[in-house]
Design goal:
125 residues; alpha+beta
């Protein structure tokens, strides 16, 4: 499955890890249609156990091409433990990671709003 390959390549998570669960395109499309009139983007979403989410987020933040927007979004560089989801672009695809312990639809709405307002000129959300 391509989405697991994207996840595995980027964060080096074992695809057999039971924590990583793909969010259906049906769910993503449903949320997208509530928040935007734009065409549905090329987006993948996964839920991860909290510890796996935190280690993945830390790994992402170390990547030079990943722009950390915590200060822009929250006014301060908040601790990763307070972050429920994150969005980034990878090889032309949007990828969303969500903690399994938070309400999925609410987290997807928040992250997909970032996708809807993504600035493609400088590739920052």
């Amino acid at each position: 499955m391509y989405s697991v390959k994207v996840l595995t390549y980027l964060v080096k998570v074992n695809p057999k890890t039971p924590s990583a669960k793909s969010v259906s395109k049906k769910t993503l499309r449903s949320v997208w249609e509530r928040i935007s009139h734009k065409p549905f983007p090329d987006v993948y979403a996964f839920t991860l156990e909290d510890s796996e989410f935190l280690s993945t987020l830390a790994l992402l933040q170390k990547q030079k091409k990943v722009i950390d927007t915590r200060v822009k979004e929250y006014g301060a560089k908040i601790d990763n433990h307070f972050i429920e989801a994150c969005t980034f672009k990878f090889k032309g695809h949007f990828v969303i990671f969500v903690k399994q312990t938070v309400p999925l639809v609410g987290a997807l709405e928040h992250e997909l709003r970032h996708v809807a307002s993504w600035n493609f000129k400088d590739e920052s959300p």
